[in-house]
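DUF951 domain-containing protein
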Amino acid sequence: MYDLGDTVEMKKPHACQTNAWKIIRMGMDIKIKCLNCGQIVMMPRREFDKKMKKVIAKHDSIN
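Predicted structure tokens:
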């Protein structure tokens, strides 16, 4: 599905006309950052699941 650091595409474009967002915080709420203008939005996980379209790029974690 999605994880911290992943780049996701949302269903509706942001005011700056991009759909690409990076997940910067996960928990009960999801915090995402617009990759075009840098605005940060926080929303409940349930709302995020409804508004997310797909994962564009997975974050490469080195353990």
